[in-house]
TrEMBL record:
Keywords: Cell junction, Cell membrane, Eye lens protein, Membrane, Transmembrane, Transmembrane helix, Transport. This is Lens fiber major intrinsic protein. One of its GO terms (molecular function) is structural constituent of eye lens. It catalyses: H2O(in) = H2O(out). NCBIfam families: MIP (TIGR00861). Belongs to the MIP/aquaporin (TC 1.A.8) family. Its main location: other. It is a multi-pass membrane protein.
Amino acid sequence: MGPDTPKSELRSRRFWRSLLAEFFATMIYVFFGLGASLRWGVGPLNVLQVALAFGLAAATLVQVLGHVSGAHVNPAVTFAFLVGAQLSLLRAAFYMVAQVLGGVAGAAVLYGLTPAAIRGNLALNTIHPGVTLAQATTVEIFLTLQFVLCFFATYDERHNGRVGSVALAIGFSLALGHLFGMYYTGAGMNPARSFAPAAITRNFSNHWVYWVGPILGATLAGLLYDFVLCPRMRGLAERLAILKGEQVAEGQAPPEPPEEPMELKTQAL
């Protein structure tokens, strides 16, 4: 396989399909996750219902779109893969933009379909009154840390003999984070999920917690897995080549060659 370049990556149909998949997957994830978190009756919110909704949504999307884009559906996950030099800087940047836009689209659709009396704050992540900002940020770090570790382990192409379902493992990991984190921070774990209702309701109170916590947690998970728990024997030059898009990471599908101009196809016939 010849060397790849960022320019040729942009010409790849697979690259743009991956972006569409990330946009669509994040839209679906936010739509169903936030929708299951709305209060339709009196009484406390059913935490188990919310945890299962987000977990099942993630599992479904990994099963359906994992082979297309990896179904990161989360800027923190994408950033962790970038830290581990498992995708190019260009792809990571485009993925994160697609995820944020997809999340906003999902929240906007939900807002339009939900009665005004039910919308509330559209399941906006909020910090429990007794939890400090430092505590909330630390909780988000731990929630995302365990989730991204699960992501890395289940997606690791070196473990082809692993037992169990990748999609279910990721879904259970996400559900676990919600079962604990809902009481502290509402369980953000995903900047795109947290940004979507904040943008729609224009409420960015303490919003930085839901970016800093997950990004730090994801970074720690990427470094811990790729350099300590299950190191990848790559040199600095190889890692830089992958980040620049000059080399394809292990397990990542190579870009499609650019399509031949119609004139050449006609001459060939």
